[in-house]
Write a structure and sequence with these properties.
By secondary structure, this protein is of the alpha+beta class. The protein has two domains: 133 residues, no CATH class; 248 residues, Amidase signature (AS) domain (Amidase signature (AS) enzymes, Alpha-Beta Complex). 32% of the residues lie in helices and 15% in strands. Strand 6 and strand 7 form a beta hairpin. Helix 4 runs antiparallel to helix 5. The chain is globular.
């Protein structure tokens, strides 16, 4: 089975090389770039926007209008929004402003109970937003609307957030790219010729689309998770989404950085079916590791030969074959890294976003993120700016904690600057579910 899978992976790589002229001819003309986001409200985190609204520095209606206008400008180029509720969102925003004007709630109450008061958010089409498309992006369910809000949407609404729209996904949330016969193809915002990834692609859930689009994404244990442009929004969103959890997740517990163990791996060598990790992604990992080392963390390069079998383990697991290799029972490598203060920095995907259609022939590259899904480990995608082609790069931070799965948070400031683009990363939250 192992060699069969690797044979087909190698065969796919050969086809990719053969088809390169086709992709070059197809994509020789670059599509129009997105218009710049000149409004300052578009370049502020949701947490900061909510604070401005609470203190009367800006109205919720003004924020919602700004985001609606932005969506109307960029969606014709991206094809990301499936269906919107813009008018209803404006009504919700006016209601928020009215509550503030009439002093129905205090600033402190809003800060503690409604951290996203008056700010917009979008919902994945398959999650369920009442009255809007709920088809799974398949023609079999065309025309079906959600009868109610999903629990996660209810939680966000209870926190004061205002839903604007539902967004496109792969058909039945089971593809590596956001494309389907019902709503079409969603393009990458940095270059429309490239893939935007797929948010529930069985292998890189949340993390691969976050990598391809240059944002933060947190995949908890096998449940829904948030994606955001700013790391601090991940923290607030996870607190809201887990508000009904009966277990104390210790989301604000401080962590002693001197006790932190940072394991890292830049590349998985000697796998004939997978491309070597892009040099700029490897450099990003090195910069992050060096920075943590300067902050006092213990840094060590991981040696896990079993990661070569990630693709095989994942596929066998998906096929429900019981006799699956388990790296957790290996007597040496992984267990040496386990502990309450260990994290693992590892590539999410070997390259930045490939051209649309190419990722189908790079399925084996999902080995970098697939094992996390199979083992139910939480992981956070951390953007590290753009490469020389202007495409996002980054890596995932995996939490190696067994056997318990309870959340707490590492929050650190990575002052890492890309020499070519001089792009400073935002606060990087390293999530710990132990």
């Amino acid at each position: 089975m192992e060699w069969t899978l690797r044979f087909f992976a190698c065969l796919a790589n050969i086809f990719l090389v053969i088809l390169k002229p086709y992709f070059w001819i197809r994509d020789c003309k670059r599509p129009p770039k997105l218009p710049p986001a000149n409004n300052d409200l578009l370049n502020i985190s949701a947490v900061k926007l909510a604070k401005k609204i609470r203190h009367g520095e800006v109205s919720s209606e003004q924020v919602i209008k700004t985001y609606i206008e932005r969506i109307k400008k960029v969606n014709p180029l991206l094809n990301s929004v499936v269906e919107n509720r813009f008018e209803a969102a404006l009504i919700d925003a006016r209601q928020c402003d009215k509550m503030l004007a009439l002093h129905e709630v205090t600033i402190q109450q809003l800060e503690e109970q409604m951290p996203f008061f008056g700010v917009p958010f979008t919902v994945k089409e398959s999650c369920g937003l009442k009255g809007l498309s709920y088809t799974g992006c398949t023609t079999v369910r065309e025309g079906i609307k959600a009868n109610e809000d999903s629990l996660i949407v209810q939680s966000m609404k209870a926190a004061g957030a205002i839903p604007l729209c539902v967004t496109n996904t792969p058909e039945l949330c089971s593809g590596f790219e956001t494309a389907n016969l019902l709503y079409g193809v969603t393009c990458n915002p940095y270059d429309g010729r490239h893939s935007a990834g797929g948010s529930s692609d069985l292998s890189g859930s949340i993390r691969i689309p976050a990598l391809f689009n240059g944002i933060f994404g947190h995949k908890p244990t096998p449940v829904l998770g948030p994606m955001a442009r700013y790391a601090e929004d991940l923290h607030a969103a996870v607190k809201v989404m887990s508000s009904g959890c009966k277990v104390n997740l210790r989301l604000d517990e401080p962590v002693n950085l001197a006790k932190l163990k940072v394991f890292y791996l830049e590349n998985v060598e000697k796998n004939c079916g997978v491309k070597s990790v892009d040099g700029e992604i490897r450099n990003a990992i090195r910069r992050a590791v060096t920075h943590f080392e300067k902050l006092g963390a213990k840094v060590d390069k991981a040696i896990i030969p079993e990661l070569l079998e990630s693709s095989e383990i994942g596929i066998l697991k998906l096929l429900t074959i019981p006799d699956v290799p388990n790296i957790l029972i290996h007597p040496k490598d992984p267990k040496q890294m386990l502990g309450d203060d260990s994290v693992f920095i590892y590539p999410t995907f070997p390259t930045p976003a490939p051209r649309f259609g190419q990722i189908v022939l790079q399925t084996a590259a999902g080995m970098y993120s697939l094992l996390c899904n199979i083992l139910g480990l939480p992981a956070t995608e951390v953007p590290m700016g753009l490469n020389h082609q202007g495409l996002p790069i980054g890596f995932q931070v995996i939490i190696l904690l067994f056997p318990k799965i309870i959340t707490s948070i590492y929050k650190y400031l990575l002052l890492i600057r890309l020499s070519l683009h001089q792009i400073m990363t935002d606060f990087v939250w390293l999530w710990r579910w132990n």
